[in-house]
Amino acid sequence: MPAPLRRLPLEVDFRQRTPITEQIRNQIRLLISRGVLRPGDQLPTVRQLAADLRINFNTVARAYRLLEEDGLISVQHGRGTFVLAPASPQAEAHLKQETLALLARHFAAQAREMGFSADEVLAALRRAWQEDEPP
């Protein structure tokens, strides 16, 4: 039985260079890879998510279409849109690697915009990683 429909914790940033469609796609991919969205969970309708984010419904429809092509969701006309189970352990590992690369690109772009060098960013990342390591 699918999990009840809920509001997704998504945000769009109109100042970013990344198109809104990609922002939505990337955030849903992240929610799936982190396990926030699980197989069988129902996503909001295109119109509902568009209203929540205050964007054109075609933008959400395009993001959903891309996620369906990625094999992450299934759009079932008349029933809803649902998160799919990973096709294989390899597909799940691939999704996690893609998500890590996406996070790294986003972080690097923000750090670059703030004027940090690669060495400064790597040093800060190493410190943060060590601070969060369990004893």
Can you describe what's shown?
With 135 residues, this protein is mainly alpha-helical. The protein has two domains: 20-83, Orthogonal Bundle (Arc Repressor Mutant, subunit A); 89-132. The protein is built from five helices and three strands, in the order αβααββαα. The protein has helices spanning 20-33, 46-53, 57-69, 89-113, 118-132; strands at 42-43, 73-76, 80-83. The protein has a three-stranded antiparallel beta sheet. A hairpin with a 3-residue loop joins strand 2 and strand 3 (80-83). Helix 1 (20-33) crosses helix 3, helix 1 crosses helix 4 and helix 2 (46-53) packs across helix 3. The longest helix is centred in the C-terminal third of the chain and has 25 residues, at 89-113. The chain is globular and about 50 Å long. The termini are far apart. The model has no long low-confidence stretch (mean pLDDT 89).
